[in-house]
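SEQUENCE-TO-STRUCTURE ENTRY
===========================
Question of interest: how does this chain fold, as expressed in backbone structure tokens?
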Amino acid sequence: MLAAAAMISALAAPATEASENTRQDKVRKSKIYLQKENRKLVAAIDSLQAELTRYQTEMRRNDSIADEIMDMYDENEDKSAAGLNPEDYTQEVTDSLLNIWYLQQQISTREVPDYNMDSIKFESNVPDAVYISRLKAMNSFIPLPYNDVVKNYIILYSEKMPETMPKILGLCNWYMPVFEEIFNEHDVPEELKAMAVIESAMNPTAVSRAGAKGMWQFMYSTAKIYGLHIDSFVDERFDPVKSAHAAAEYLKDAYRIFGDWNLAIASYNCGAGNVNRAIRRSGGKRNFWEIYPYLPRETRGYVPAFVGALYTMTYYKEHGIVPEAIELPARVDTFHINKMLHFKQVCALAGVPEQDLKNLNPQYRHGIIPGNERDCILQIPFNYANAFIDHEDSLYTYKADEYFNPVVIKKIKDGGDGERIIHRVRSGEVLGRIAIRYHVSVSQIKRWNNLRSDNIRIGQRLVIYRGGNAPATSSSSSSSTAKTKPATSVQTAAKTSASAKSSINTNADYTIYVVKSGDSLYEIAKNYPGVSAQNIMDFNGISSKIKPGMKIRIPKLR
């Protein structure tokens, strides 16, 4: 019995060993399989993670654009096309057709009627049913509402501006086909082209009192965000084509935020922040007319003005308006410039009228194309193209020593980009932080604003010259402040009025005046021929509010 059991055990041992080997083999195979599966899963997860990261990056990019636009209204320097703080809204900084004093043909202020659109109600022989029918027939992608406010602006543009609208429409004939192509390229409604009429009356060199520039009225920071180049020689805000591309991108971003073209249009005027604030105050409404009462006063008329301008551009013939012939060439040729070139060189050798060069290339601030610094383009009338090519070799050397005198070039460069901004101090800000932001020094900010200490207060407005390059008058006056000797009082009443006797010192660029009780900037300015109250405010970076004992600089205008 024992022998049999031993035999069975001996026979079973190999079987058990084989079974164990088989089991281990299966385990190894399973492990390999699992490792392969794990690698596949890891690869799939990595792929999904990469895709997720891509989407998150895209979302962050879009959100950052939205945040950028939403935050820009906090910056005092970013007004038109970026937002203006509600407390900063005044008639002086409103960029609308009602306040335009620029036109390529220099429309006089008498030609632009100054109506208070909040109180006036125009009458027309055109029945409401005709206006409604015409707006509907325009088949606009952007909703064009009709009500009493819109009707008022339609009548304004089509009937109340008989001297102005022919000039504007004449410019439209030249520029609008270009804008239509640009807006189609950016996949935004081409009807938005009418905004150029509201913003600048189609003038590529328009400059508002708020500092917005060009046909599309961009402020400095917004222009930079949307890729417009600005330096001592070039300001692409004045380039109608490049600034139109930037305007299309801004409006597209604004539409992403609000999902409504009328709100996007409104944000171009007052900034996305103010539109968003109006939405919150309305209880979350997202229709222009529902948030209308909560918008800044000037913006309330912006969308109605857009409808009125677009209507008039479409139906001007029905109102007997004849576009004025504008002397701009029907065809132009474009050249890439890679060296320094002056308009006067092109004028002298190629025969192109200098005014044509200025009209076609308004982005060059001093008539100098800095082709040695970056690739630049020059547009000239087509009929001068052959002459330009024939003389191209000698163009760049013609009177180069005169036109590119190192002293002249240095003076231009020392002026920086010429951007004077007003920074409104916010909670938590100190001079050091502000200086770093604008790439200037604390001492420069103090000189520009006559600050005796580093103390600043919330809401205070500081004059800053971006990059530290102040205009010659300001920089020289600032640098000479410490060198100025104690001034003497003016001795002779025959030479000055009694109020001017408080002037305590002078230098080559300004006179320091100590404000007396009862003084106003207007009265002070009257004592200095050629100087206005606005000149004094700009030169000192102050408002019209002054108080006794305050020292202000009176610029010496040359």
